[in-house]
Amino acid sequence: MNNTARPVLEGRGLVKRYGHVTAMDGCDFELLPGEILAVIGDNGAGKSTLIKALSGAIIPDEGTILLDGEEVRFHGPLDARRQGIETVYQDLAVAPALTIAENLFLGREVRRSGAAGKVFRMLAKRQMLREARAHMDELKIGIRSMRQTVETLSGGQRQGVAVARSAAFARHVVIMDEPTAALGVKESRMVLDLILQIRERGLPVILISHNMPHVFEVSDRIHIQRLGRRATLVATKSITMPDAVAIMTGARSGDLAA
Amino acid sequence: MVETTPLGVDGEVPEAEAGPSFVTRLFGIPALGPFVALILVGAFFALKSDRFLTGGNLSLVLQQTIEVGTLAIGQTLVILTAGIDLSNGAVMSFGSIVMTKLAVDSGMSPIPAIALGLLACVAFGVLNGALVTGIRLPAFIVTLGTLNIAFALTHIYSGEATISGLPGEMTFLGDTFKIGGTAVTYGTVVMLALYVVAWFVLTQAPVGRHVYALGNNPEAVRLAGVHIRRLLVGVYATAGLIYGIAALLLVARTQVGDPASGQTDNLDSITAVVLGGTSLFGGRGSVIGTLIGALIVSCIRNGLTLLGVDSIYQVLITGILVIVAVAVDQLTRRGTR
Ligand SMILES: Nc1ncnc2c1ncn2[C@@H]1O[C@H](COP(=O)(O)OP(=O)(O)OP(=O)(O)O)[C@@H](O)[C@H]1O
Ligand SMILES: [Mg+2]
Fold it and tell me: Which atom of ligand 1 is nearest the CA belonging to A22?
């Protein structure tokens, strides 16, 4: 990884309070082009809060976010999406009674061309089915029909849909909040492969995970979050799993490396 | 890179877009159950009374479906978002008084009077939507409040008097034309047309998909970048407009503005929606089911009347029916998960 490259996404001094809980307390963040950055930390360390701020799902109380070196203000998730930042949220954010295709295109439905689409705002259902099929195939997610409702899928398949949605539309950054939580060994494997595939396409990925072997297998750098702040940011190669866990839990300070 | 395996069953190759099997498709038809129920209800009354299946009586059933059937379209929209609207009958009643009183007592020409009546109903819809989204009050409480407000305004403004002598423009939709010897009102056609429009928007347009998704998982819709407050207020306002049209249909059918109208229509519209297979928890159901549900309600009312059953028993039976329908909905949903 070239350390002189300009960060794709940067956060400086981010603060988010919920009543008296300070979920993020002056948190810094840096994502470089083409890297897989793992974000680890104990429960409640503020990982989800951090990525929600970076994806426009919440607005931080203080601090700045920079995209390609320029300060940005996301007023909602749509703003971040317009900048090509796609997110798989921890709770997946899918609509169970809608079909896979409808979920993939939720909020960015394709309408028919001509008057049918412009005047009557008709959905281009076939086109969306076809494209959904193509996206799922590209990621090798074996689901029979895009017309199946998401509630009929297994947990792993749902995760696949959420991941496919982000991978399909991302042009800039992909963020995944615990994409392998609640998945079996095989399904986890497949999501990790997806993440590697996304990096191969040249997109940087932010991966939040509690699974240390996964983190050490796929990531280029590790951001360790503790008590609402970044305790350290290290190259994965230069730290051991026990050390990372020690910093995460506060048994050791994070000053060792940078 | 490691070899990738599909997420599905081992070695299963994704095949061409096959769609669900015939059986799941058959049972996936949202309104199949309600449709069977309607046939059974119809068959029961046809056996019990010779008059039930006559063209004249069926036309009457359709006419008796008009207000509740129209209100139930708005109710479906609201329930799909996981809300509920108790105010619709009272709002319709208020709209009907506004339009008739302006035209008859204030001498306004009929078209602007109708427009103001519709506007009054839309205003109630916007109020409902604003309270539900703005202060995040439960729809149940909000619409219980606006039910009382609309009810009171209706009685204050009308002075408890029925308004008659309406201009022809207001009663035109109550006129009939013949289909094979059976008289059908234009109002019936308007109601059916509204169903078609609602079906189209809900199933064929992006906003319809957003309404379903909103009832499923509002957070997912928000994160997908949809402005959910605007969407919700839009749903309640559209429902209000539909209640306004119901007001016009009511006025046209009864030829008067009656402040006592519509008092049980809120529960009847909910009954129609639930019998039509739409989930009270939101996000699942269809407007076509609602039409069938509304027809079931009026078939039962009409059939029991033909059999000479006292109307209070009709209320009793529809009450039991809603509970049965909700229970069936619950049990089948539990079964599919
Ligand atoms: N919407 C909210 N309202 C109130 N408190 C919140 C909210 N969201 C997060 N918090 C609090 O902020 C802190 C950080 O939460 P966050 O979800 O960011 O942690 P996390 O690192 O993602 O944890 P986990 O590993 O369990 O997912 C927690 O103490 C949490 O209770
Ligand atoms: Mg989290």
Answer: 12
Q: Which residues of B touch A121 (CB under 8 A)?
A: 205-207
Q: How far apart are CA B189 and CA B59, in angstroms?
A: 12
Query: What is d(CA B139, CA B145) in angstroms, rounded to the nearest whole number?
Result: 10
Residue B176 three-state SS: strand
Mean pLDDT of chain A: 90
For ligand 2, the distance from its centroid to the CA atom of residue A50, given in whole angstroms, is 9
Nearest CA to ligand 1 atom 6: A18
d(CA B273, CA A204): 48
CATH topology of domain A1-84+174-179+205-258: Rossmann fold (3.40.50)
Give the position of tokens 């008289």: B183
C-beta of A57 in contact with ligand 1 (< 6 A): no
d(CA B52, CA B299): 9
Any ligand 1 atom below 6 A from CB of A23 = yes
Domain locations in chain B?
51-328
CB B333 within 8 A of CB B278: no
- Surface-to-core class of residue B36, CB atoms within 10 Å of its CB (0-12 exposed, 13-18 middle, 19+ buried): exposed
User: Does ligand 1 lie within 6 Å of residue A180's CB atom?
Assistant: no
How is residue B257 annotated by DSSP?
B
pLDDT reported for residue A258: 43
Question: Phi and psi of B159, rounded to 5°?
Answer: 60, 35
**Residue in B205, B212, B219 closest to A93 by CB:** B219
Q: Could you identify the atom of ligand 1 that is nearest to the CA of residue A42?
A: 25
pLDDT exceeds 60 at position A142: yes
The CATH topology of domain B51-328 is ABC transporter involved in vitamin B12 uptake, BtuC (1.10.3470)
B180: left (phi over 0), alpha (psi -120 to 50) or beta: left
Q: Quick one: pLDDT at residue A79?
A: 92
Please write the tens of the pLDDT for every residue from B95-126. 999 999 999 999 999 999 999 999 999 999 99
Quick one: which atom of ligand 1 is closest to the CA of A210? 25
A57 → chain B, closest CA residue: B223
Closest residue, chain B, to A119 (C-alpha): B205
**Touching check for B220 and chain A: CB below 8 Å?**
yes
Report strand pairing: A205-208 vs A36-41. Answer: parallel
Instruction: Please indicate if any CB of chain A lies within 8 Å of the CB of B51.
Output: no
Q: Is the CB of A120 under 6 A from ligand 1?
A: no
pLDDT (tens digit, 9 = 90+) per residue, B181-229? 788 899 999 999 999 999 999 999 999 999 999 999 999 999 888 999 9
Supply the DSSP symbol for A141.
-
Q: How far is B295 from chain A (nearest CA, A)?
A: 26
Lowest mean pLDDT among A85-94, B155-164, B191-200: A85-94
Indicate the domain borders of chain A. 1-84+174-179+205-258
